[in-house]
């Protein structure tokens, strides 16, 4: 079977909260010496997502209004068998990919953008602020705000603002305001620009600017596209659908791979399966693929750190390269983040998830192979997961094992063609 689909009626009605099933307790976010970060949270986020952030409940109802918008934008998404790639690799492994690229914005990000916009409007918001790297999250939030009648301001990492002009076009089409970060719009942005007028920016800086903006107006909330518990919670629709799709073909995954920047795509795909791993009902490896230029899981420290550069967030226990880390300007802008979702970090620390690194040349080579064998052009971020999936399939070729490999296909690369062109022309660095 090449494509496994679900009817609209099987769109998940509940999100899965892995906090209820963790093998050890999740370390709490910490108050800082100034004592303002936790106090500021109700001014930054709607009360509804804060309730989800702190929830210990295993299952959280998805409001009917959100489920209707999920269906409107294409959920449930299909699960494909990558038979062309399998043939190219000459592997006995079966490779599946869950296609989040088929949403209107071309990525998984809409799953939480719709939910966060819905809850913010319910709490009385008129405008949302956020950051974006490659632009996928900014595009998703711009569309969600447009659908739900909110204004949207996006602080886009400066290097991606220049690298990916058509992401800006998409956000503008959805009525989003897009500002290169660091900017002169905020005190923190002006501080960074004073030190370096040509600063490439980082997700940490853009987060600081978006939070500062939200704190200046009681009708404005900040929204985050990854890292926090409630964001990963909303993304579990990916894994919940995938579980049903594997049940339809009477299979289970032996290896699950996703790319990680902040961890939302990976967590969303992995956590519903991780539930069965923790309970002993599933034997599966969980592999998190990250850029070698931003090796948070493989070289970062597991400790408390800020989620942003200015230190406006509470301290979270996570793998981190340091909140002042400025990553190289690789094309996978969605993965250029210094930290990691505390939930993903905890499971890595417990040995239930393994981090893998991939360099930039490898990912574009992988994207070209996938495009030629499956016909779909993956986003640079997604290529990290595909590369690790290919590595696992080639191991099966050596051993003869017939493993099922599930890749979370987080987004398409149709707005990342400059990176592919640089690769084809031989202009990319490692």
UniProtKB/TrEMBL annotation:
Catalytic activity as recorded in UniProt: (1S,2R)-1-C-(indol-3-yl)glycerol 3-phosphate + L-serine = D-glyceraldehyde 3-phosphate + L-tryptophan + H2O
Pathway: Amino-acid biosynthesis; L-tryptophan biosynthesis; L-tryptophan from chorismate: step 5/5
EC number: 4.2.1.20
Record bears the keyword Amino-acid biosynthesis: yes
Domain Tryptophan synthase beta chain-like PALP: 72-411
InterPro entries with a match to the protein in the record: Trp_synth_b-like, Trp_synth_b_CS, Trp_synth_beta, Trp_synth_beta/beta-like, TrpB-like_PALP, TrpB-like_PALP_sf
Record key words, sorted: Amino-acid biosynthesis, Aromatic amino acid biosynthesis, Lyase, Pyridoxal phosphate, Tryptophan biosynthesis
GO CC entries: cytoplasm
An example molecular function term from Gene Ontology annotations: pyridoxal phosphate binding
CDD domains found in the cross-reference section: Trp-synth_B
Superkingdom of origin organism: Archaea
Purpose of the protein: The beta subunit is responsible for the synthesis of L-tryptophan from indole and L-serine.
Family affiliation: Belongs to the TrpB family.
Assembly notes: Tetramer of two alpha and two beta chains.
The protein's name: Tryptophan synthase beta chain
Top-level taxonomy: Archaea, Methanobacteriati, Methanobacteriota, Methanomada group, Methanobacteria
């Amino acid at each position: 079977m090449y494509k496994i689909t679900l009817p609209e009626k099987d769109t998940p009605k509940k999100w899965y909260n892995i906090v209820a099933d963790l093998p050890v307790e999740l370390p709490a976010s910490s108050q800082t010496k100034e004592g303002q970060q936790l106090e500021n949270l109700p001014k930054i986020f709607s009360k509804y997502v804060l309730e989800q952030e702190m929830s210990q409940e295993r299952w959280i109802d998805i409001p009917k209004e959100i489920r209707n918008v999920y269906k409107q934008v294409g959920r449930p998404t299909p699960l494909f068998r990558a038979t062309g790639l399998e043939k190219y690799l000459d592997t006995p492994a079966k490779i599946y990919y869950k296609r989040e690229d088929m949403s209107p914005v071309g990525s998984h990000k809409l799953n939480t953008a719709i939910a966060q916009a819905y809850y913010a409007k319910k709490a009385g918001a008129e405008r949302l602020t956020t950051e974006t790297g490659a632009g996928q999250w900014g595009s998703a939030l711009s569309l969600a705000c447009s659908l739900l009648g909110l204004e949207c301001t996006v602080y886009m990492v400066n290097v991606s603002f220049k690298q990916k002009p058509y992401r800006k076009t998409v956000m503008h089409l959805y009525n989003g305001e897009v500002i290169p970060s660091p900017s002169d719009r905020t005190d923190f942005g002006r501080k960074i620009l004073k030190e370096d007028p040509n600063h490439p920016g980082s997700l940490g800086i853009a987060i600081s600017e978006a939070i500062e903006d939200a704190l200046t107006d009681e009708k404005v909330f900040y929204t985050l596209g990854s890292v926090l518990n409630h964001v990963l919670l909303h993304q579990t629709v990916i894994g919940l659908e995938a579980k049903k799709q594997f049940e339809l073909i009477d299979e289970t995954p032996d290896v699950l791979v996703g790319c990680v920047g902040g961890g939302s795509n990976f967590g969303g795909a992995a956590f519903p399966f991780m539930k069965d791993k923790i309970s002993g009902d599933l034997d599966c490896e969980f592999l998190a693929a990250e850029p070698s230029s931003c090796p948070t899981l493989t070289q970062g420290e597991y400790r408390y750190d800020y989620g942003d550069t200015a230190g406006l967030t509470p301290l979270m226990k996570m793998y981190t390269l340091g909140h002042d880390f400025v990553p190289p300007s690789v094309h996978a802008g969605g993965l250029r983040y210094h930290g990691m979702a505390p939930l993903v970090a905890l499971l890595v620390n417990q040995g239930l998830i393994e981090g893998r690194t991939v360099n930039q040349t490898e990912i574009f080579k992988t994207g070209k192979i996938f495009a030629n064998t499956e016909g779909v052009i993956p986003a640079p971020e997604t290529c990290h997961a595909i590369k690790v999936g290919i590595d696992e399939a080639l191991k099966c070729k050596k051993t003869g094992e017939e493993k099922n490999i599930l890749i979370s296909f987080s987004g398409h690369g149709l707005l990342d063609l400059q990176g592919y062109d640089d690769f084809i022309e031989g202009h990319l660095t490692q």
